[in-house]
């Protein structure tokens, strides 16, 4: 089963002169199966984050289409896109974006609040406890973000992204602010969750050694995607 598919995606922006088109992505097609892990490598400015934002319904392509589990979601209304992002897609970024005034447990439960979520309050709480235990943070439930290390903060971000059991997890340079040893541990945690949760994983990274830990690796350069 294909969790996410994009077909002939192109993206351009308009230059300040109002006329010139600046191409970012060119004719990109990609399919990711349930439970599969994929890495996208590429230099800074190659369009990796733009592609991830289109796949995650944070941005629209200039042309081409995006489908989730067989449903074309390229141009669904904004309200429906918001709900799809909350329930079907998990995001992890280089910065954790945790709320400093909230505890670890409160932070990870935030995505369960919006209407349309099928989890009951107790089920969400139970899942939060279990996920935090699995990533080694079972004793950090009531800590504030400022009391955690960089690696611990990113683990909390992973759990928050997975709390609603999404089919797709998108990670944009999740280890970019961490040292190599912490990054390696974190990537292994992420891959364990990828398999245990059977969530499809797409990770954007500059680190070739981490990319090679994924099942498939692509390179994005000059707006074009190619398999390695």
Percent strand:
25-35%
The radius of gyration is 18 Å
Helix content: 25-40%
* CATH secondary-structure class: Alpha Beta
Question: Could you describe the largest sheet, including whether it forms a barrel?
Answer: 6 strands, mixed
Q: What is the strand arrangement across the widest sheet?
A: 6-7-8-3-9-10
CA-based shape: globular
Query: What name is given to the CATH topology?
Result: Rossmann fold
Structural class: alpha/beta
Element string (H = helix, E = strand) = EEEHEEHEHHHEHEHEE
- CA distance, first residue to last residue: 23 Å
Question: Tally the helices: what do you get?
Answer: 7
pLDDT < 50 stretches: none
CATH architecture descriptor: 3-Layer(aba) Sandwich
Commentary on this structure:
The protein has 228 residues and is α/β, with parallel strands linked by helices. The chain has a single domain, classed as Rossmann fold. The chain is 32% helix and 28% strand. The protein contains seven helices and ten strands. The strands form two sheets. It has a six-stranded mixed β-sheet with strand order 6-7-8-3-9-10, with helices on both faces. It has a four-stranded antiparallel β-sheet with strand order 2-1-4-5, covered by helices on one side. Helix 6 links the parallel strand 7 and strand 8. Helix 5 runs parallel beside helix 6. The longest helix is centred in the last third of the chain and has 18 residues. The mean pLDDT is 91.
């Amino acid at each position: 089963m294909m969790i996410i598919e994009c077909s002939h995606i192109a993206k351009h922006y308009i230059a300040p002169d109002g006329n010139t088109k600046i191409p970012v992505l060119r004719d990109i097609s990609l399919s990711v199966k349930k439970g599969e892990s994929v890495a996208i490598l590429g230099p800074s400015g190659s369009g990796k984050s733009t592609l991830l934002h289109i796949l995650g319904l944070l941005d629209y392509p200039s042309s081409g289409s995006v489908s989730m589990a067989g449903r074309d979601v390229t141009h669904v209304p904004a309200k429906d896109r918001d709900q799809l992002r909350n329930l079907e897609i998990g995001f992890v970024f280089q910065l954790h974006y945790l709320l400093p005034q909230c505890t670890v447990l409160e932070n990870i439960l935030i995505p369960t609040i919006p209407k349309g979520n099928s989890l009951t309050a107790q089920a969400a709480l139970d899942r939060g406890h279990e996920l935090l235990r699995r990533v080694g943070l079972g004793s950090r439930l009531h800590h504030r973000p400022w009391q955690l290390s960089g690696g611990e903060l990113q683990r909390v971000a992973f759990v928050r992204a997975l709390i609603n059991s999404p089919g797709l997890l998108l990670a944009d340079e999740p280890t970019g602010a961490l040292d190599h040893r912490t990054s390696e541990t974190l990537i292994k945690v992420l891959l364990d969750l990828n398999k245990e949760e059977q969530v499809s994983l797409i990770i954007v990274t500059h680190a070739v050694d981490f990319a090679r830990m994924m099942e498939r690796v692509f390179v994005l350069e000059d707006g074009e995607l190619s398999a390695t």
